[in-house]
Write a sequence for this structure.
């Protein structure tokens, strides 16, 4: 539990910071720091040929297509509980330099994006754009506690947890289990 | 070289040039599959940053799916599939229909595209939904904060 909290606190601190530097270790399984150039592509477009002009305007998962044809779907950014689509949306169809961590586990090699810039010499951006985007969409200050705990305050999350409960078994099951703890 | 063969070869080379110039996408060949498994958060499960299965992880799975982390299905044989499409909707970042089925055991039919070690699933339809059946909270509490 302490390790999880440490990583989440680190992500929160990094999300609040604007500085860009080489990838930070998160202690992931078989972790490798990586920096590579790739083209930002719409995953569905790359895999099926269904290609809207703007990579889906933020509604689609975006991938990193390397020169050798290798396609990488980043699963994570630097904001707690958020993915990388917002971080790459502004680079649709462009060549970028991605900096982050590979981890190999359970038979899969996954990638967490920590920094990105337009190649070859664009300005580094920390992969935390999700947070200001979320704050703007929800009319709150991105530095406010509400935004920092976006995952507890998102209206979609609130509605789903109210309906399904934290355990997915309904509110009564939550009361019984959490009340007994 | 016979004139007809030369003409065909020229046409093919021309087509290849056009594709290269326009950046046209060559789609991968999908395989029709039926998959049964638990809807999971791909990052938490594959990174093992925390225990990420069943009821203990339901709330976190909702958080991550809403935050745009790719949603997966953990097949009964342990294979992880990344869901890139559900039904007609092509939105796969925080798709409301996908948010609703976190942690549920489902059987789906769709197209599987395997590429660079990942299994991407384009679901045509959910053919069975058994609901949330993987009870893990008694052993693991509520991940990751205990509440």
């Amino acid at each position: 539990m302490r390790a999880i909290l440490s990583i989440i606190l680190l992500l929160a601190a990094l999300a609040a910071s604007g500085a860009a530097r080489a990838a930070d270790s998160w202690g992931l399984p078989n972790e490798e720091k990586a920096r590579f150039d790739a083209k930002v592509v719409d995953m569905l477009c790359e895999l099926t040929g269904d290609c809207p002009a703007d990579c889906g305007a933020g509604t689609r998962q975006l991938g990193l297509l390397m020169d050798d044809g290798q396609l990488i779907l980043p699963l994570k950014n630097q904001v707690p509980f958020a993915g990388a689509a917002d971080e790459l949306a502004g680079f649709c169809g462009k060549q970028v330099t991605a900096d982050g961590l590979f981890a190999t586990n359970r038979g899969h090699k996954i990638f967490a994006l920590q920094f990105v810039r337009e190649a070859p010499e664009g300005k580094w951006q920390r992969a935390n754009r999700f947070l200001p985007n979320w704050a703007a969409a929800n009319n709150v200050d991105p530095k406010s506690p509400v935004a920092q705990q976006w995952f507890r305050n998102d209206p979609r999350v609130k509605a789903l947890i109210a309906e399904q409960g934290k355990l997915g078994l309904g509110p009564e099951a939550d009361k019984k289990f959490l009340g007994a703890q | 070289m016979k004139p007809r063969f030369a003409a065909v070869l020229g046409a093919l080379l021309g087509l290849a040039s056009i594709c290269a110039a326009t950046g046209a996408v060559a789609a991968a060949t999908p395989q029709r599959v039926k998959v049964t498994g638990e809807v999971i958060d791909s990052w938490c499960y594959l990174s093992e940053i925390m225990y990420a299965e069943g009821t203990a992880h339901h709330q976190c799975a909702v958080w991550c799916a809403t935050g745009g982390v790719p949603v997966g299905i953990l097949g009964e044989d342990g294979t992880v599939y990344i869901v890139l499409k559900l039904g007609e909707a092509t939105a796969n970042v925080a798709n409301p229909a996908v948010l609703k089925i976190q942690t549920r055991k489902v059987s789906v039919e769709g197209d599987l595209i395997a590429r660079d070690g990942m299994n991407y699933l384009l679901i045509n339809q959910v053919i069975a939904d058994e609901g949330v059946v993987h009870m893990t909270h008694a052993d693991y509490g509520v991940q990751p904060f205990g509440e």
User: Anything to note?
Assistant: Chain A touches chain B through 60 residues (CB under 8 Å). Chain A has eight helices and seven strands. The beta strands of chain A are 32-42, 62-65, 71-72, 74-76, 95-105, 108-118, 125-126. The radius of gyration of chain A is 18 Å.
